[in-house]
Design a protein that fits this description.
2 copies of one chain form a homodimer. Chain A contains 9 helices and 4 strands. Chain A folds into 2 domains: 79 residues, Glutaredoxin (3-Layer(aba) Sandwich), CATH 3.40.30.10; 112 residues, Glutathione S-transferase Yfyf (Class Pi), Chain A, domain 2, CATH 1.20.1050. Chain A is an alpha+beta fold and 210 residues long. The radius of gyration of chain A is 17 Å and the shape is globular. Chain A has a 4-stranded mixed β-sheet.
């Protein structure tokens, strides 16, 4: 398998964790987002959105969108499971993941921030926007699992929720968000980061890290 | 079941289609988004994000996030299926849905547009932003299914992809996007709209339509 990604891309980070948890290895191909390499014609032929990650799993289909890739990994390599078995619990885990993957991360991705700059916003306003998106999303996440015993987001093993949370917390810190106000999220992050699968997927551990 | 929604919310629209396709009925509770009713304390107790939709299915869990709700409906009411059986095809359908649900709709939702106004953007710039988000997302979607025979997004029956596409095209038109440049998407939309499940879920057919 080949994973097209970028060390600091939080969506790529989610998939790296999933591959590690499943014990799968992939060749990592880096596309430097700040240099615009994801918009090179050769990459657009693989992923017409020009986003990372893309997983090439050997067939003719290029898998895109991190949550779709992770669900595919979970369906084709069921152990360890990344979703609970109970449908209601699955829905809660997916909803948590989607608060991050739909309503938080895309609001603060490079493309949106670049558009804000084009519209004349200052660098301070752009960073403020990204911090706002992270604070709003993570505050919801904190409430969603406030009554969950943990230590992970949902129970005693990592799920797709944790795969989304850990990279998003890294983004939040990069934009200057005080994450100490999210104690339950930090508990889940600590449990996750104690696992080698999460530690090895961290941005600073990737070959393309700067 | 109770579905908390709003006639014009495209995420609510997705869930209405899913319920109709499954032959399920729900009591529809409207929260007027432009009046801020989704931020009323009583609703925040049900959905801490203050977004619609929320599905209350009888138990203690309030189901949130439209794609998580739809996957739950598909898992608990399997017929007709809203995802193909083959894992790779499922991944393609989910990726298409996520281009809309992660990278298009949240960029142009009311909350983000309100934030742009707070930062001093003109009404013209805000509408331009929303149109841009729709054009970018739908252009990707058009490419993702360009080689699919159809008539639906993926094959001869509706999937989660169509449930996301039809409401997003309605948004795009509302923001003045010329959708004629997406012929394959329009083909899928026509196939979907010919079904009663889609027609009955349309915003203008809802009791709270203005």
């Amino acid at each position: 398998m080949k994973l097209h990604g970028y060390f600091r891309s939080s969506a790529s980070y989610r998939v790296r964790i999933a591959l590690n948890l499943k014990g799968l290895s992939a060749e990592h191909l880096s596309h430097h987002l700040r240099k615009g390499e994801q918009r090179a014609p050769a990459y657009l032929a693989i992923n017409p959105q020009g986003f990372v990650p893309t997983l090439q799993a050997g067939g003719s289909v290029n898998l895109t969108q991190s949550l779709a890739i992770i669900e595919w990994l979970d369906e084709t390599h069921p152990l360890p499971p990344l979703l609970p078995k109970d449908p209601l619990r699955r829905a809660q885990v997916r909803a948590f993941a989607q608060v991050i993957a739909c309503d938080t991360h895309p609001i603060q991705n490079l493309k949106v921030l670049a558009r804000l700059r084009e519209l004349g916003l200052s660098e301070e306003q752009v960073t403020g926007w990204a911090a706002w998106a992270n604070r709003e999303g993570l505050a919801v996440c904190e409430k969603l699992i406030a009554l969950e015993a943990g230590p992970f987001c949902f129970g005693d093993a990592p799920t797709i929720a944790d795969l989304c949370l850990v990279p998003q917390l890294a983004n939040a810190r990069r934009f200057g968000v005080d994450v100490a106000v999210f104690p339950r999220l930090l508990q889940a992050e600590a449990a996750a980061k104690a696992l080698k699968a999460f530690a090895d997927a961290a941005p600073e551990r990737q070959a393309d890290a700067e």
